[in-house]
Amino acid sequence: MIIRRVLFPGENSLDQWRQILSILGAPKKEFFDRYGIQISENQLEERTAVPFEEVIPDCAFAIETQMPQHHLTADLARDLLKKMLVIDPEHRITVDNALNHPFVSLWKTEEDMNVPINNYQYDDAIELEDRTTAEWKDIDTAQRKRKADRFGSETSRLGCRDAGDALRECV
């Protein structure tokens, strides 16, 4: 969303993997070994990661959304994204560490962090149903409305008209 285009625009699974590798670089051989994937040294070409300043340049961030006093800077956003977009889960930032990252500190509240654990189990049976695109859109719209009615939207909770207002006016 930041760069207003798909970061890894693959046409199929293999192309998707190539797109990811072209930006994040290739994982180390230990990654493949851990998952029992046989790969020879010559298959594991040395691909280095593209610097995130090139992937997501400063111009992608609107000046009015940068608030250093609240840790909303392009550098901190890139730092969090770089830590999240790691192929090897052993080296990826944990959820707890991501929630404690300075970039999200503006939105993190103790109220949000200390909610009771929900024992709801997702039922994936709905995904196997044969429906038209219009029917799926209706289901999605209904679910979003139920969620908004139940929890309210983030911006309305903050008393703002939209997300831009949330950044500008509600701090």
TrEMBL record:
The lineage of its organism: Eukaryota, Metazoa, Ecdysozoa, Nematoda, Chromadorea. The keyword Nucleotide-binding applies. One of its GO terms (molecular function) is ATP binding. This is Protein kinase domain-containing protein. InterPro entries: Kinase-like_dom_sf, MAPK. Keywords: ATP-binding, Nucleotide-binding.
